[in-house]
Design the sequence.
């Protein structure tokens, strides 16, 4: 079976590998500290660390899209902003 | 109460995870791969980077389709929610009328999307359709094939006909769950019909109404089959919603790169809505 129809490229492979590693890291975190660390943050509803990862990834996607549409194709600053956003989400949400 | 942790149960979820992997995750990965490349067929791809995303985000065509989709969702919600509540409030609570009304309400929901589209496509035709022919006989200039406003009216009416029942059934379920004691207390206090609605029925319907609004928003935002069958996205592009535009781009023009970029943006919006839906639902559950 070949995967040529999936049209893999190195950047997209690295992207998915990063997502996969993040999920694996979350599994390890859950194993070390079970229960998901639920808490009420600034959004005023209960979130677990899985919720916080989801909000971080989804928000990062929109940050990148907004940067691309409003600023330009150099996405390194968008990535930096997303990292700051993700830290904020894990700290306060 | 102490919970028993048994992680072996995860093995039971394995089949569905494999199924989702093959039916959703792998196709999604492929779409992401397509979105950063260009192709002319034969499995030959050229790196395009973020070009298609930029093109899509700066495309008038994309934002027009998005605007039409949002307008459509807003209009159908503005009609279906009040109408659904009104019908539910006036449905009988006991006697033979209950099953009759429930069956009548459920009927449109059982009809497949393409059949609904075909019914309304024929219904609105001015030569043979009951609606179109009657309006023409009354001297009203109605033609959904030629006039964008008529096309919109037809598509909105069709959606209202198809989906208001869902709102009705959800609201009705909320209404019948209100104990009689509430109404008796209201009668003793001499509450008006409006006060009963505002302070008893509406709060009790809050949960189901939220579900109805979110379900109808998401469904109307993803609408494809019905307007495609009735108008094909026309006249011009007047009823071309996001999903119709996406299919035109991917299948009609074979622009796989831009179509993949558009799919991802569309998917992210749907994902955001789904998250809101999930969060609202689970928070209501925890509040109860």
Sequence:
């Amino acid at each position: 079976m070949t995967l040529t129809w999936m049209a893999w490229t190195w950047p997209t492979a690295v992207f998915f590998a990063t997502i996969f590693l993040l999920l694996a890291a979350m599994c390890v975190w859950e194993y070390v500290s079970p229960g998901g660390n639920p808490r009420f943050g600034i959004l005023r509803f209960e979130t677990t660390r899985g919720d916080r990862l989801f909000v971080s990834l989804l928000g990062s996607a929109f940050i990148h899209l907004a940067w691309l549409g409003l600023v330009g194709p150099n996405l390194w600053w968008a990535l930096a902003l997303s990292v700051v956003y993700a830290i904020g989400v894990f700290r306060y949400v | 109460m102490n919970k028993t942790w048994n992680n072996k149960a995860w093995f039971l979820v394995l089949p569905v995870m494999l199924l989702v992997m093959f039916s959703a995750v792998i196709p999604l990965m492929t779409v992401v791969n397509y979105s950063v490349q260009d192709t002319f067929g034969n499995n030959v791809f050229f790196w395009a980077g973020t070009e298609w995303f930029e093109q899509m985000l700066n495309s008038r065509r994309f934002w027009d389709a998005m605007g039409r989709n949002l307008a459509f969702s807003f209009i159908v919600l503005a009609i279906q929610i009040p109408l659904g509540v009104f019908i539910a409030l006036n449905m009988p609570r006991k006697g033979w009328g209950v099953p009759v009304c429930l069956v009548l309400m459920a009927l449109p929901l059982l009809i497949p999307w393409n059949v609904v589209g075909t019914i309304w496509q024929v219904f609105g035709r001015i030569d043979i359709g009951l609606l179109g022919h009657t309006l023409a006989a009354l001297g009203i200039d109605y033609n959904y094939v030629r006039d964008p406003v008529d096309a919109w009216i037809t598509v909105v009416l069709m959606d209202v006909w198809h989906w208001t029942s869902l709102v009705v059934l959800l609201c009705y379920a909320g209404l019948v769950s209100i104990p009689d004691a509430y109404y008796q207390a209201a009668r003793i206090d001499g509450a008006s019909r409006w006060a009963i609605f505002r302070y008893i029925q509406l709060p009790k319907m809050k949960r189901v109404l939220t579900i109805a609004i979110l379900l109808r928003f998401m469904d109307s935002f993803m609408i494809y089959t019905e307007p495609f069958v009735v108008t094909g996205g026309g006249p011009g592009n007047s009823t071309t919603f996001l999903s119709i535009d996406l299919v035109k781009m991917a299948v009609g023009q074979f622009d796989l790169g831009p179509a993949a970029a558009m799919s991802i943006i569309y998917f992210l919006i749907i994902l955001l809505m789904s998250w809101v839906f999930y969060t609202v639902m689970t928070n209501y559950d925890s509040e109860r």
Summary: Chain B has twelve helices and two strands.
